[in-house]
Amino acid sequence: MKIIPLLFLTLFLAANSARADCDYDDFPLMPDMLLASIGSNIQWNQTPMAGRSFRVPANLVTVKDFYTKAWADEVDFSAFNGWEQILHINQHCMMLIQVKRQNDRYSYGQLLITNPPGKAVVAQVLGDGMPVPPGAQVISDMRSDDDIRQGRMVLLLNAEDMHTTARWYETELKQQGWSLEQRSQQANGVVLSYSRKRELMTVGLLRHQDKTQILVNRMDR
User: Which of 2, 94, 98, 139 is the most exposed, fewest CB within 10 Å of its CB?
Assistant: First the structure.
């Protein structure tokens, strides 16, 4: 579980300076690519985004080759949480493809684009309302709000060790009325799963070098 590749964080910080003049008409599509909406109101670090899921009859190499040519080699490749990522940033916006192998014939994933036109951003402190340990740094804050489900995902860095951080969450979330449903632990990672009324929360902890990486995912049922 690699929660925080440097390029993934950098691309979203860079996207904040992009102008809001692009939409999906500018996004190159592969032949026979099937699309579906994955959210009508998404924000990443207060930057509005739009997302569409896709399925295409092509392997990962073919997908990467297509977008390398479509964007005239102006792409960066990275990996995040099991996804292969293809990034393109121009003077108008940021476009990101997250893709996985489905089988020998098909690949699937998401097409993400920053700053959809006509959406205002309300200034708000990153991580506000989420369980953030004292002294932890909020790296990113993603909100999704559509007709199906509301969700929030916050990525943090903490100087405290992983076990101290896990104990803080166990104490803090119990005080907030959350019930611990499951606790799983590996050598360098801990996952805590909680429920409260109609809400679910997962806290993933990973010790990397001298920091504890924290991924908090909260959603309604």
Answer: 2
The secondary structure of the chain, three-state, reads CCCCCHHHHHHHHHHCCCCCCCCHHHCCCCCCCEEEEEEEEEEECCEEEEEEEEEECCCHHHHHHHHHHHCCCCCEEEEECCEEEEEEECCCCEEEEEEEECCCCCEEEEEEEECCCCCCCCCCCCCCCCCCCCCCEEEEEEEEECCCCEEEEEEEEECCCHHHHHHHHHHHHHHCCCEEEEEEECCCEEEEEEEECCEEEEEEEEEECCEEEEEEEEEEC
pLDDT digits (tens, 9 = 90+) for 43-67: 555 555 667 889 999 999 999 999 9
Low-confidence ranges of the chain (pLDDT < 70): 1-22, 38-50, 81, 91, 115-124, 144-149, 221
The rounded distance, in Å, linking the Cα atoms of 196 and 175 is: 12
pLDDT at 109: 92
- Which pLDDT score is estimated for 12? 42
Residue 38 in contact with residue 49, Cβ under 8 Å? no
Measure the CA angle with vertex 52, ends 46 and 57; round to 5°: 145
